Amino acid sequence: MSCQEKIDLHLKRMALILGWMLIAAGLLWALMGLWPAIAWFLHTVTPFLVALVVAYLFNPVVDVVQQRLRLGRIGGIVVVGVLILSIVVLFFGLLIPVLYGQAAGVVAALKIHLPGLIRKAAAWFDNVKTA
Fold first, then answer.
1. CA dihedral 96, 98, 101, 107 (to 10 degrees)
2. pLDDT tens digits, one per residue of 66-114
């Protein structure tokens, strides 16, 4: 392969890459123009997608509950729903008091240490300003 053929091959590759980059830029520009419509669509469809995923994930659990307790489909769904709701309420019932206690501790520590921190910051800013 001659030197001129190698240069032509590299120029063709560069032109092809540049073309694909222009196409990608044009698609991104078009997408930015359509973004409000896409955002509205995603906002509208998201609850349905979440419901679909939840139903897909808990279908085997409902099947097992149906078979073990010899319930109908609605009974199995109610049992699993009550179980999930109980777990969520228990989780937050245990978590919220702990978080409240930690937040109260942080506020108490800030009441004690904040004036000293403010004095240190003011002194540091005075040193920076005079330097």
1. -80
2. 999 999 999 999 999 999 999 999 999 999 999 999 999 999 999 999 9
Q: Which long-range contacts (CB under 8 A, 24 or more apart) does 2-7 make?
A: none
Contacts of 58 (CB under 8 A, 6+ apart): 80, 84
Domain ranges of the chain: 1-70, 73-131
pLDDT tens, residue by residue, 107-127: 999 999 999 989 998 888 888
Q: What is the dihedral angle through the alpha carbons of 5, 10, 11, 12, rounded to the nearest 10 degrees?
A: 90
pTM: 0.51
Q: Could you tell me the two tokens for 80?
A: 């699993």
Q: Per-residue DSSP letters for 59-90?
A: HHHHHHHHHHHT--HHHHHHHHHHHHHHHHHH
Token pair belonging to 124: 């540091």
Can you tell me the distance from the alpha carbon of 42 to that of 37, in angstroms, rounded to the nearest whole number?
Answer: 9
